[in-house]
Amino acid sequence: MKKKIIAFGGISLCCILMVAAIFMLFITEGQDAWRMNVIYVGLFMFSLHSCYRINKYRKAGGKTSSVIETELKLHQVNSISGFLRVFFAPEDMRFRTSLGLFLLVVFGCVGRYYWFWVFLLLLVAAKALLAFQYYRYWKAWHGLNNNDEIEEEKDFDEEAVREFTDVLKSHEHKAIGICFDDAENAPKAIGCSKFGGQPDVPDDFQWPKDDENRPLSLLLQIDCRDLASVDTERLLPTSGHLYFFYELDEQNWDGTENSVRVIYEETENKELHRADFPTDLADGYRLNEKPLSFVVQNSYPSWDDFICKCPKYDVSYDVADTVKEKLDSEQPYDTIGSMLGWADLIQGNIVEDTDDNVLLLQLKTIESDDADELMFGDCGTIYFYISRQDLKNKRFDRIKFELQCY
Question: Which of 66, 167, 289, 380 is surrounded by the fewest CB atoms within 10 Å?
Protein backbone atom coordinates (compact mmCIF):
# COMPACT_ATOMS: atom_id res chain seq x y z
CA MET A 1 0.00 0.00 0.00
CA LYS A 2 2.82 2.43 0.91
CA LYS A 3 4.56 1.68 -2.37
CA LYS A 4 1.42 2.53 -4.35
CA ILE A 5 0.88 5.76 -2.43
CA ILE A 6 4.49 6.86 -2.97
CA ALA A 7 4.31 5.97 -6.69
CA PHE A 8 1.01 7.85 -7.09
CA GLY A 9 2.40 10.88 -5.26
CA GLY A 10 5.59 10.89 -7.32
CA ILE A 11 3.79 10.58 -10.66
CA SER A 12 1.27 13.27 -9.62
CA LEU A 13 4.09 15.68 -8.72
CA CYS A 14 5.87 15.01 -12.02
CA CYS A 15 2.64 15.61 -13.96
CA ILE A 16 2.12 18.91 -12.16
CA LEU A 17 5.68 19.97 -13.02
CA MET A 18 5.16 19.01 -16.69
CA VAL A 19 1.93 21.02 -16.91
CA ALA A 20 3.61 23.98 -15.20
CA ALA A 21 6.60 23.76 -17.58
CA ILE A 22 4.34 23.76 -20.67
CA PHE A 23 2.27 26.64 -19.28
CA MET A 24 5.37 28.75 -18.56
CA LEU A 25 6.80 27.88 -21.97
CA PHE A 26 3.85 29.57 -23.72
CA ILE A 27 3.46 32.63 -21.52
CA THR A 28 7.10 33.60 -20.98
CA GLU A 29 8.01 36.74 -22.93
CA GLY A 30 10.82 39.27 -23.00
CA GLN A 31 14.44 39.54 -24.00
CA ASP A 32 15.60 36.52 -21.98
CA ALA A 33 12.55 34.35 -22.76
CA TRP A 34 14.59 31.88 -24.81
CA ARG A 35 16.84 31.17 -21.84
CA MET A 36 13.92 30.42 -19.57
CA ASN A 37 12.21 28.34 -22.25
CA VAL A 38 15.29 26.09 -22.39
CA ILE A 39 14.91 25.62 -18.64
CA TYR A 40 11.22 24.74 -18.99
CA VAL A 41 11.94 22.20 -21.75
CA GLY A 42 14.62 20.60 -19.56
CA LEU A 43 12.23 20.49 -16.59
CA PHE A 44 9.57 18.87 -18.78
CA MET A 45 12.04 16.21 -20.00
CA PHE A 46 13.22 15.47 -16.49
CA SER A 47 9.66 15.16 -15.14
CA LEU A 48 8.59 12.93 -18.03
CA HIS A 49 11.56 10.63 -17.47
CA SER A 50 10.83 10.54 -13.73
CA CYS A 51 7.26 9.38 -14.48
CA TYR A 52 8.65 6.61 -16.66
CA ARG A 53 11.08 5.44 -13.97
CA ILE A 54 8.47 5.46 -11.20
CA ASN A 55 5.91 3.60 -13.30
CA LYS A 56 8.48 1.03 -14.42
CA TYR A 57 9.46 0.28 -10.82
CA ARG A 58 5.81 0.06 -9.74
CA LYS A 59 4.99 -2.49 -12.45
CA ALA A 60 8.13 -4.52 -11.75
CA GLY A 61 6.67 -5.55 -8.39
CA GLY A 62 10.06 -5.56 -6.68
CA LYS A 63 13.71 -4.78 -7.22
CA THR A 64 14.86 -3.78 -10.69
CA SER A 65 17.64 -5.72 -12.37
CA SER A 66 20.06 -2.78 -11.91
CA VAL A 67 19.43 -2.87 -8.15
CA ILE A 68 20.07 -6.63 -7.98
CA GLU A 69 23.20 -6.23 -10.13
CA THR A 70 24.60 -3.55 -7.81
CA GLU A 71 23.84 -5.61 -4.70
CA LEU A 72 25.66 -8.62 -6.16
CA LYS A 73 28.71 -6.44 -6.82
CA LEU A 74 28.60 -5.17 -3.23
CA HIS A 75 28.92 -8.78 -2.03
CA GLN A 76 32.45 -8.83 -3.47
CA VAL A 77 33.90 -5.73 -1.76
CA ASN A 78 35.31 -5.58 1.76
CA SER A 79 36.25 -1.94 2.25
CA ILE A 80 34.76 1.55 2.14
CA SER A 81 36.87 2.38 -0.93
CA GLY A 82 35.51 -0.73 -2.66
CA PHE A 83 31.97 0.28 -1.78
CA LEU A 84 32.52 3.76 -3.27
CA ARG A 85 34.02 2.29 -6.45
CA VAL A 86 30.93 0.13 -6.95
CA PHE A 87 28.48 2.92 -6.24
CA PHE A 88 30.21 5.55 -8.42
CA ALA A 89 31.46 3.21 -11.18
CA PRO A 90 31.40 5.21 -14.46
CA GLU A 91 30.29 2.18 -16.48
CA ASP A 92 27.18 1.91 -14.30
CA MET A 93 25.97 5.45 -14.99
CA ARG A 94 22.29 5.19 -15.90
CA PHE A 95 20.30 7.50 -18.16
CA ARG A 96 18.63 9.11 -15.16
CA THR A 97 22.04 10.28 -13.87
CA SER A 98 23.20 11.41 -17.31
CA LEU A 99 19.99 13.39 -17.74
CA GLY A 100 20.50 15.02 -14.35
CA LEU A 101 24.05 16.08 -15.26
CA PHE A 102 22.82 17.37 -18.62
CA LEU A 103 20.20 19.51 -16.91
CA LEU A 104 22.85 20.87 -14.56
CA VAL A 105 24.89 22.00 -17.57
CA VAL A 106 21.81 23.60 -19.12
CA PHE A 107 20.89 25.40 -15.92
CA GLY A 108 24.47 26.57 -15.44
CA CYS A 109 24.89 27.87 -19.00
CA VAL A 110 21.57 29.48 -19.86
CA GLY A 111 19.50 29.55 -16.68
CA ARG A 112 19.31 31.61 -13.56
CA TYR A 113 21.98 30.74 -11.03
CA TYR A 114 19.48 29.69 -8.35
CA TRP A 115 17.99 27.04 -10.70
CA PHE A 116 21.44 25.47 -10.95
CA TRP A 117 21.97 25.31 -7.18
CA VAL A 118 18.45 24.09 -6.40
CA PHE A 119 18.71 21.24 -8.91
CA LEU A 120 22.25 20.39 -7.79
CA LEU A 121 21.01 20.13 -4.20
CA LEU A 122 18.13 17.84 -5.23
CA LEU A 123 20.45 15.61 -7.29
CA VAL A 124 23.01 15.30 -4.47
CA ALA A 125 20.26 14.56 -1.91
CA ALA A 126 18.78 11.80 -4.09
CA LYS A 127 22.19 10.20 -4.67
CA ALA A 128 23.09 10.47 -0.99
CA LEU A 129 19.86 8.70 0.01
CA LEU A 130 20.54 5.91 -2.49
CA ALA A 131 24.13 5.57 -1.26
CA PHE A 132 22.91 5.34 2.34
CA GLN A 133 20.45 2.54 1.46
CA TYR A 134 23.16 0.58 -0.38
CA TYR A 135 25.56 1.14 2.51
CA ARG A 136 23.04 -0.34 4.99
CA TYR A 137 22.59 -3.36 2.71
CA TRP A 138 26.37 -3.80 2.36
CA LYS A 139 26.95 -3.66 6.12
CA ALA A 140 24.09 -6.11 6.78
CA TRP A 141 25.40 -8.55 4.17
CA HIS A 142 28.93 -8.57 5.58
CA GLY A 143 27.54 -8.79 9.09
CA LEU A 144 26.01 -12.11 8.07
CA ASN A 145 28.93 -13.49 6.09
CA ASN A 146 32.05 -12.31 7.90
CA ASN A 147 31.54 -14.27 11.12
CA ASP A 148 35.20 -15.32 11.21
CA GLU A 149 36.36 -11.69 11.24
CA ILE A 150 33.89 -10.85 13.98
CA GLU A 151 35.20 -13.74 16.06
CA GLU A 152 38.76 -12.42 15.79
CA GLU A 153 37.71 -8.96 16.97
CA LYS A 154 36.04 -10.26 20.13
CA ASP A 155 38.31 -10.63 23.12
CA PHE A 156 36.51 -12.44 25.92
CA ASP A 157 37.39 -14.25 29.06
CA GLU A 158 37.81 -17.83 27.82
CA GLU A 159 36.56 -19.18 31.13
CA ALA A 160 33.32 -17.19 30.79
CA VAL A 161 32.83 -18.53 27.28
CA ARG A 162 33.42 -22.13 28.36
CA GLU A 163 31.08 -21.75 31.34
CA PHE A 164 28.27 -20.26 29.27
CA THR A 165 28.74 -22.91 26.59
CA ASP A 166 27.80 -25.57 29.14
CA VAL A 167 24.84 -23.46 30.31
CA LEU A 168 23.53 -22.90 26.78
CA LYS A 169 23.89 -26.59 25.94
CA SER A 170 21.64 -27.38 28.89
CA HIS A 171 18.87 -25.45 27.11
CA GLU A 172 19.32 -27.31 23.84
CA HIS A 173 16.16 -28.27 21.94
CA LYS A 174 15.85 -30.44 18.87
CA ALA A 175 14.62 -28.58 15.80
CA ILE A 176 13.67 -29.64 12.29
CA GLY A 177 16.07 -28.17 9.76
CA ILE A 178 14.64 -27.37 6.32
CA CYS A 179 17.01 -27.97 3.39
CA PHE A 180 16.84 -27.75 -0.36
CA ASP A 181 16.81 -31.28 -1.76
CA ASP A 182 19.68 -32.36 -3.99
CA ALA A 183 17.26 -33.51 -6.68
CA GLU A 184 18.16 -31.95 -10.01
CA ASN A 185 14.61 -31.23 -11.15
CA ALA A 186 11.77 -29.39 -9.46
CA PRO A 187 9.19 -31.62 -7.77
CA LYS A 188 6.51 -33.13 -9.96
CA ALA A 189 4.52 -35.28 -7.54
CA ILE A 190 1.29 -33.82 -6.24
CA GLY A 191 1.46 -33.07 -2.52
CA CYS A 192 5.24 -33.26 -2.07
CA SER A 193 7.10 -30.94 0.30
CA LYS A 194 8.48 -27.98 -1.62
CA PHE A 195 9.59 -24.36 -1.58
CA GLY A 196 7.54 -21.98 -3.74
CA GLY A 197 5.57 -22.96 -6.81
CA GLN A 198 1.83 -23.64 -6.98
CA PRO A 199 0.12 -25.30 -4.01
CA ASP A 200 -1.44 -28.76 -4.30
CA VAL A 201 -4.85 -28.28 -2.73
CA PRO A 202 -8.38 -29.69 -2.45
CA ASP A 203 -11.18 -28.53 -4.74
CA ASP A 204 -12.61 -25.96 -2.32
CA PHE A 205 -9.31 -24.10 -1.95
CA GLN A 206 -9.38 -20.32 -2.36
CA TRP A 207 -6.07 -18.55 -2.92
CA PRO A 208 -5.44 -16.33 0.13
CA LYS A 209 -5.39 -12.56 -0.35
CA ASP A 210 -4.66 -9.65 1.97
CA ASP A 211 -6.95 -6.76 2.87
CA GLU A 212 -5.85 -4.89 -0.27
CA ASN A 213 -6.99 -7.88 -2.37
CA ARG A 214 -3.40 -8.78 -3.30
CA PRO A 215 -2.69 -12.52 -3.66
CA LEU A 216 -0.13 -13.96 -1.24
CA SER A 217 2.85 -15.99 -2.41
CA LEU A 218 3.37 -19.63 -1.46
CA LEU A 219 6.56 -19.91 0.57
CA LEU A 220 6.42 -23.56 1.66
CA GLN A 221 4.20 -26.57 1.13
CA ILE A 222 4.96 -29.33 3.64
CA ASP A 223 3.73 -32.90 3.55
CA CYS A 224 3.41 -33.60 7.28
CA ARG A 225 4.30 -37.26 6.75
CA ASP A 226 7.85 -36.07 5.95
CA LEU A 227 8.11 -34.58 9.45
CA ALA A 228 7.20 -37.71 11.42
CA SER A 229 10.75 -39.08 11.59
CA VAL A 230 12.36 -35.74 12.57
CA ASP A 231 9.72 -34.38 14.99
CA THR A 232 11.33 -35.71 18.16
CA GLU A 233 8.74 -34.04 20.43
CA ARG A 234 5.76 -35.29 18.40
CA LEU A 235 4.22 -31.82 18.26
CA LEU A 236 3.33 -31.50 14.57
CA PRO A 237 0.57 -33.27 12.61
CA THR A 238 1.62 -36.63 11.16
CA SER A 239 -0.67 -36.40 8.13
CA GLY A 240 -2.07 -33.72 5.85
CA HIS A 241 -0.29 -30.64 4.51
CA LEU A 242 0.85 -27.27 5.85
CA TYR A 243 0.97 -24.24 3.54
CA PHE A 244 2.77 -21.01 4.43
CA PHE A 245 1.76 -17.88 2.47
CA TYR A 246 3.12 -14.33 2.69
CA GLU A 247 2.52 -11.08 0.78
CA LEU A 248 5.99 -10.32 -0.65
CA ASP A 249 5.45 -6.83 -2.05
CA GLU A 250 4.87 -4.78 1.09
CA GLN A 251 6.27 -7.46 3.45
CA ASN A 252 4.21 -6.35 6.42
CA TRP A 253 6.53 -6.90 9.39
CA ASP A 254 3.88 -8.03 11.89
CA GLY A 255 1.54 -9.90 9.58
CA THR A 256 -1.38 -7.47 9.88
CA GLU A 257 -3.79 -6.74 7.02
CA ASN A 258 -4.07 -10.51 6.45
CA SER A 259 -0.64 -10.48 4.82
CA VAL A 260 0.27 -13.88 6.31
CA ARG A 261 -1.61 -17.15 6.18
CA VAL A 262 -0.88 -20.65 7.48
CA ILE A 263 -3.31 -23.26 6.13
CA TYR A 264 -3.64 -26.88 7.20
CA GLU A 265 -5.42 -29.44 5.00
CA GLU A 266 -5.96 -33.09 5.94
CA THR A 267 -6.95 -34.10 2.40
CA GLU A 268 -5.07 -37.09 0.98
CA ASN A 269 -2.71 -36.62 -1.97
CA LYS A 270 -4.97 -38.41 -4.43
CA GLU A 271 -7.67 -35.78 -3.81
CA LEU A 272 -5.40 -32.79 -4.39
CA HIS A 273 -4.84 -30.78 -7.56
CA ARG A 274 -2.23 -28.17 -8.47
CA ALA A 275 -3.77 -24.70 -8.25
CA ASP A 276 -3.06 -22.12 -10.96
CA PHE A 277 -1.35 -18.86 -10.04
CA PRO A 278 -3.78 -15.92 -9.72
CA THR A 279 -3.56 -13.72 -12.80
CA ASP A 280 -2.90 -10.67 -10.62
CA LEU A 281 0.11 -12.24 -8.86
CA ALA A 282 3.23 -10.58 -10.33
CA ASP A 283 5.80 -12.87 -11.94
CA GLY A 284 8.42 -11.73 -9.44
CA TYR A 285 6.35 -13.22 -6.61
CA ARG A 286 5.71 -16.57 -8.30
CA LEU A 287 8.58 -18.41 -6.65
CA ASN A 288 10.04 -21.29 -8.64
CA GLU A 289 9.44 -24.54 -6.80
CA LYS A 290 12.28 -26.51 -5.25
CA PRO A 291 11.96 -29.85 -3.40
CA LEU A 292 12.64 -29.91 0.34
CA SER A 293 14.13 -32.37 2.78
CA PHE A 294 14.15 -32.30 6.59
CA VAL A 295 16.82 -33.09 9.18
CA VAL A 296 17.15 -33.09 12.96
CA GLN A 297 19.42 -30.34 14.28
CA ASN A 298 20.39 -28.92 17.65
CA SER A 299 18.91 -25.53 18.52
CA TYR A 300 20.06 -23.02 21.15
CA PRO A 301 18.40 -19.86 22.50
CA SER A 302 19.50 -16.39 21.42
CA TRP A 303 20.46 -13.93 24.15
CA ASP A 304 16.99 -12.32 24.33
CA ASP A 305 15.16 -15.63 24.75
CA PHE A 306 17.74 -16.89 27.24
CA ILE A 307 17.48 -13.77 29.45
CA CYS A 308 13.69 -13.94 29.29
CA LYS A 309 13.81 -17.54 30.48
CA CYS A 310 16.66 -17.08 32.99
CA PRO A 311 16.44 -13.41 34.07
CA LYS A 312 18.79 -13.87 37.06
CA TYR A 313 21.68 -15.28 35.04
CA ASP A 314 24.38 -12.64 34.44
CA VAL A 315 25.82 -12.93 30.94
CA SER A 316 26.74 -10.24 28.43
CA TYR A 317 25.21 -10.15 24.98
CA ASP A 318 28.63 -10.52 23.31
CA VAL A 319 29.51 -13.66 25.25
CA ALA A 320 26.10 -15.22 24.64
CA ASP A 321 26.21 -14.31 20.94
CA THR A 322 29.72 -15.72 20.53
CA VAL A 323 28.77 -19.02 22.15
CA LYS A 324 25.58 -19.36 20.09
CA GLU A 325 27.43 -18.61 16.84
CA LYS A 326 30.03 -21.25 17.68
CA LEU A 327 27.41 -23.91 18.52
CA ASP A 328 25.34 -23.06 15.45
CA SER A 329 28.41 -23.30 13.20
CA GLU A 330 28.90 -26.90 14.33
CA GLN A 331 25.63 -27.95 12.71
CA PRO A 332 26.40 -30.17 9.68
CA TYR A 333 23.51 -29.01 7.49
CA ASP A 334 22.99 -25.96 5.28
CA THR A 335 19.39 -24.99 6.04
CA ILE A 336 17.05 -22.30 4.76
CA GLY A 337 15.02 -22.34 7.96
CA SER A 338 13.70 -24.54 10.71
CA MET A 339 10.64 -25.69 12.63
CA LEU A 340 10.36 -26.05 16.43
CA GLY A 341 13.40 -25.43 18.62
CA TRP A 342 14.69 -21.91 19.32
CA ALA A 343 14.49 -18.88 17.06
CA ASP A 344 17.63 -17.21 15.71
CA LEU A 345 16.55 -13.73 16.76
CA ILE A 346 17.83 -10.52 15.17
CA GLN A 347 16.00 -7.71 16.98
CA GLY A 348 14.76 -9.12 20.28
CA ASN A 349 12.45 -11.84 21.52
CA ILE A 350 9.04 -12.22 19.87
CA VAL A 351 7.23 -14.16 22.61
CA GLU A 352 7.98 -14.00 26.34
CA ASP A 353 6.73 -17.46 27.24
CA THR A 354 8.81 -19.89 25.16
CA ASP A 355 7.36 -22.84 27.07
CA ASP A 356 3.79 -22.20 25.97
CA ASN A 357 4.63 -20.84 22.50
CA VAL A 358 6.20 -22.98 19.80
CA LEU A 359 8.32 -21.77 16.89
CA LEU A 360 6.28 -23.21 14.06
CA LEU A 361 8.63 -21.91 11.36
CA GLN A 362 11.51 -19.54 10.80
CA LEU A 363 12.56 -18.87 7.22
CA LYS A 364 15.77 -17.00 6.43
CA THR A 365 16.63 -14.74 3.51
CA ILE A 366 17.48 -17.03 0.59
CA GLU A 367 20.42 -16.22 -1.68
CA SER A 368 21.14 -19.46 -3.47
CA ASP A 369 22.04 -20.58 -6.96
CA ASP A 370 19.47 -23.36 -6.51
CA ALA A 371 16.40 -21.16 -5.99
CA ASP A 372 14.93 -17.70 -6.45
CA GLU A 373 16.43 -14.98 -4.29
CA LEU A 374 14.02 -14.22 -1.47
CA MET A 375 14.96 -11.19 0.61
CA PHE A 376 13.11 -10.34 3.83
CA GLY A 377 13.90 -6.69 4.53
CA ASP A 378 17.68 -6.27 4.84
CA CYS A 379 18.84 -9.92 4.93
CA GLY A 380 16.19 -10.72 7.53
CA THR A 381 14.16 -13.67 8.78
CA ILE A 382 10.44 -14.29 9.20
CA TYR A 383 9.04 -16.12 12.24
CA PHE A 384 5.77 -17.99 12.82
CA TYR A 385 4.82 -18.81 16.44
CA ILE A 386 1.83 -20.78 17.69
CA SER A 387 0.67 -21.71 21.20
CA ARG A 388 0.97 -25.35 22.21
CA GLN A 389 -2.79 -25.56 22.71
CA ASP A 390 -3.55 -24.17 19.25
CA LEU A 391 -0.94 -26.48 17.74
CA LYS A 392 -2.55 -29.46 19.47
CA ASN A 393 -5.98 -28.38 18.16
CA LYS A 394 -4.52 -27.62 14.70
CA ARG A 395 -5.64 -23.99 14.91
CA PHE A 396 -3.11 -22.69 12.43
CA ASP A 397 -5.25 -19.61 11.82
CA ARG A 398 -4.06 -18.27 15.20
CA ILE A 399 -0.35 -17.72 14.69
CA LYS A 400 1.91 -14.85 15.75
CA PHE A 401 4.11 -13.55 12.94
CA GLU A 402 7.06 -11.17 12.83
CA LEU A 403 9.72 -10.11 10.34
CA GLN A 404 13.10 -9.05 11.74
CA CYS A 405 16.04 -7.73 9.76
CA TYR A 406 19.33 -5.85 10.13
Answer: 66
As a whole number of angstroms, the distance between CA 17 and CA 39 comes to 12
DSSP per-residue letters across 330-341: T-----SEEESS
Average pLDDT, stretch 131-147?
A: 67
> pLDDT-derived band of residue 146, with 50, 70 and 90 as boundaries?
low
CA 78 to chain centre: 22
Instruction: Return the higher-pLDDT residue of 399 and 148.
Output: 399
Report whether 168 contacts 323 (CB < 8 A): yes
Please report, for residues 87, 90, 91, 131, 262, the alpha-carbon distance to residue 98 in angstroms, rounded to integers and kept in the order given: 15, 11, 12, 17, 47
In whole angstroms, give the CA distance from residue 14 to residue 21: 10
Within a 10 A sphere around the Cβ of 236, how many other Cβ atoms?
19
If DSSP codes are grouped into helix, strand and coil, which group holds residue 17? helix
Contact 359, 384 (CB under 8 A): yes
* SS3 state at 229: coil
Of 296, 300, 348, give the one whose Cα is nearest residue 323: 300
Give the tens place of pLDDT for each residue, 215-224. 999 999 999 9
Concatenated DSSP letters for 238-301?
SSSEEEEEE-TTT--TT-TTTTEEEEEE---GGG-EEPPPPTTS-GGGSPPPEEEEEEEEEE--
Cα angle 368, 378, 120 (rounded to 5 degrees) comes to 120
H or E segment and range at residue 125: helix 113-145
H-helix or E-strand spanning residue 153: helix 147-153
Which of 375, 351, 352 is closest to 365 using CA atoms?
375
Type and span of the H or E element at 402 = strand 400-404
